[in-house]
Amino acid sequence: MSQPSQRFAERDCVPKPGTCTLFSMEPWLRGTHTDLPAVVRAVVHALELSREDIEHWCQPLSDEALNERAAANPDPLAPVAFHIRHIVRTLDRLLTYAEGRPLSSEQLVALKTELDPGATNAELFSEFRKGIDDAMGRLRAFAGADLEQPRAVGRKGLPTTVGGLLVHCADHTQRHTGQAITTAKIVQETLTGSVGGE
Questions:
Q1: Domain extent listing, the chain
Q2: In 3D, which of 126, 117, 130, 132 has the Cα closest to residue 176?
Q3: What is the DSSP string of the chain?
Q4: Can you tell me the distance from the alpha carbon of 104 to that of 131, in angstroms, rounded to the nearest whole number?
């Protein structure tokens, strides 16, 4: 049986490099990754949406704007750079737990530097793009996994499952994507008096 909706999605909705995808069809409606089971496919789509939104709203920011801690009550907002680092480094940690492995010393060091100042646009987006690509590759390995398989998180060994970790990959990524975008708008308005990209 033919799948016209998938052909339409591939022809008209898959974003082209350098184009604004904000108003195009969201990844979960494009008919892509149909070789993956529903849960894994949904997580991959969530990561694709995050990548497109972060690229659209945050990539144009200057180094200064990416590191800016906008005033808020009671504490300043975490900078956009934090959210971008936190998205991909958390994906790495969550997928490590899902794979049944403990975190490495390198991952623990990376965790402690997510709020470090001085990020440049080039290095930040290089890490972001690589992190999203790596995560999507690792997610594919769960295509035939038992999602009810138990897993433990952190030093306390808090209980969850493979499925719980994969779903959290999606919801955590989307939460911080929203925070990054909101912060980007606030910072850009603070520094320039205008909100770009709208």
A1: 31-192
A2: 132
A3: ---HHHHHHHHHTSPPTTS--TTSPPGGGTT--TTS-HHHHHHHHHHHHHHHHHHHHTTTS-HHHHH-----SSSPPPPHHHHHHHHHHHHHHHHHHHTT-PPPHHHHHHHHTTT-S---HHHHHHHHHHHHHHHHHHHHTTTT--TT-EEEETTTTEEEEHHHHHHHHHHHHHHHHHHHHHHHHHHHHHHHSS-TT-
A4: 16
Cα separation, 177 vs 172, whole angstroms: 9
pLDDT digits 0-9 by tens, 142-189: 999 999 999 999 999 999 999 999 999 999 999 999 999 999 999 999
CATH level 3 topology of 31-192:
Four Helix Bundle (Hemerythrin (Met), subunit A) (1.20.120)
* Token representation of residue 86: 């936190």
pTM for the structure as a whole: 0.86
